[in-house]
Fold this sequence. Notes:
homodimer; alpha/beta; six-stranded parallel beta sheet; about 40% helix; DNA-binding transcription factor activity (chains A, B); HTH_LacI (chains A, B)
Amino acid sequence: MAAAAGVSIATVSLVINGKAAGRVSPATQARVEKAIADLGYVVDSAARSLVTGRRQCVALVAPDVGNPFFSQVAAGVATALGTEYRLLLAVSGAEHDQPDLDQLVAFGVDGILLEFPGAEPPSGQIGCPVVLLDEPSGPPELSRVYFDTRAATREMVDQLVELGHRNIVYLDASREGKTFETRRRQVANRLRRTPGTALTRVRSDIKVDDASTLVAESLPDWRRAGVTAIISATDVLGYGALSALGAAGVSVPKQMSLVSFDDLPFSKLTSPALTTVRLSAYDLGYASARILREQLAEESPAPRQESLPAMLINRSSVGPARRLRARG
Amino acid sequence: MAAAAGVSIATVSLVINGKAAGRVSPATQARVEKAIADLGYVVDSAARSLVTGRRQCVALVAPDVGNPFFSQVAAGVATALGTEYRLLLAVSGAEHDQPDLDQLVAFGVDGILLEFPGAEPPSGQIGCPVVLLDEPSGPPELSRVYFDTRAATREMVDQLVELGHRNIVYLDASREGKTFETRRRQVANRLRRTPGTALTRVRSDIKVDDASTLVAESLPDWRRAGVTAIISATDVLGYGALSALGAAGVSVPKQMSLVSFDDLPFSKLTSPALTTVRLSAYDLGYASARILREQLAEESPAPRQESLPAMLINRSSVGPARRLRARG
């Protein structure tokens, strides 16, 4: 085609890749475009990616695409990416403890959004910009977006204490991760300020049915121990607790209070409506993708750490402490 | 590298792409692999994709990634694809009426899963296998997976009629699409068998808040008209109806019955638990991705149409008809 247009290959690639402005004269550009038309040349993005090194493709890496928190993150990412970038969803099945980022880089993604509690933070040398999602701490050379949960968590714990709750279960995610570790630590630290309080940790996969089974099995022990409230690390775990308590005839909040983290779109619809600390998954996805786009636009991008607000949303699942009568 | 190994470029590409067996002698293969090692050659997937025409990447195209039905579909797709294929999530924002499949083909995806009610079925000539998801009808040359909703819909309508419901609202999706058209038609046809019944159609975007607003605004008219039941085209629309009815102090099912389609994981947790026709989104994603993989494995694949079962799940949102007292 360069021959047909009587120009250099470099010139052709400038035109093909829309970088001709100011570099190639309008006349030359017109000649190249005519040659392209004459030869019926179609820009193949694989071929182009060899020229530009860009796929206009961003990977969102997560352990569980079925998680509604994640689908809200993906919606925010998709909105922020618009039509300029494609979104590659790199799912790492439950069997994979760590995502394979090198494979994604080899695939040629322009950037990576890592929404993966417990993932090893990648080294700065992996070859494309990375933004960590929902990571309250990380190496300074990596960009990340996180929720500032401290104030809302204090408010949540203080409310339970004021309502007389002393013996509380913490329904945690079995997946390790700094975001879950932080929520748990902030709850425990705040509760420790009140003498005579106890926090018992149990763990479940972040699936409604898994959490429901765990709570159903644990309920007899909790009755005997005098547990009056459950703090759930995520709404999905909280949904499982709600269904198990409902099936066991335990009234929420009369006999058991329940409070959670996330405020998924369904938490205002549960029975009773869930009191929860709002962590906007959509905002998390949107802010992370915006930062990644900025990083892709800059020559030598500086890492960015951005915090998002958290807010306690009071609904109907928290009430005064009332010890369950032990059965059996 | 061909020079270093003293072989042809074709031979090198056979070895690089794991197609040497039976084509290249072990000795030659070893020589090429040594050259690869010596030259520190890394297989770049963009370069390789030019050789193989394969990205090991499948696109899932949908209008709204935030929809929990879609996230269940994506989970099923991810499971069926396993680690062999990457999943490209091609989101078409609300502003896009039609997905741009040619752009995806140009990007070099190996196949397309189209979960997009109302999308024009692509012509067979688009250059890669396509499977239509949740499409009850389509051109015979295209593979598709759909739900056989007829029997479950009849059961649902007959139950409402037996409970005395005559004046029913159909809360439909504003998005056009054969799957929504089919549900609506099957409901209307079955209801028509009973004299003195009326079905009023209203439409909303498939968002909890949009549906909630629409139902809240329509409720006064429905009271006056003596509506006693709502049939919702999707659970998300049903969630919106539930929250609007709850806010208006209308007891479900005492004063208004509600039945829906989907059975999302949250429908057993709503207040009251939602009676709904189960259309397994996970199974839909899994079956479609399995078919696409088979199509990718075959030399000249024949189109496949596969139906999935639907089942009425009776919970607590349907009861005997009781006309609301009109207010104002």
